[in-house]
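S.,

Sequence below, as promised.
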Amino acid sequence: MRSSYFTTFFATVYLVIYCVMLQFESLQYYAVCMFFFSPVVVGLMIFTVIRYGKYNGPELDDREFGYQDKEIV
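The prediction came back faster than expected:
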């Protein structure tokens, strides 16, 4: 599970299946079971993305101002 793409894809598919299962009355019991496991799926996705994800964007360095444009009241 070191691929953040796979984990994100799995969590998205899990969510789509959950939403589809809610639409069918005969599958709502299974959807409720999936609902109880969803924090585990989301937690694993967050952990994997934070741990193994790569940021390829530019570093801000001197252009990073934070909240310097906001006046502190």
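The chain has a mean pLDDT of 84.

Coffee later?
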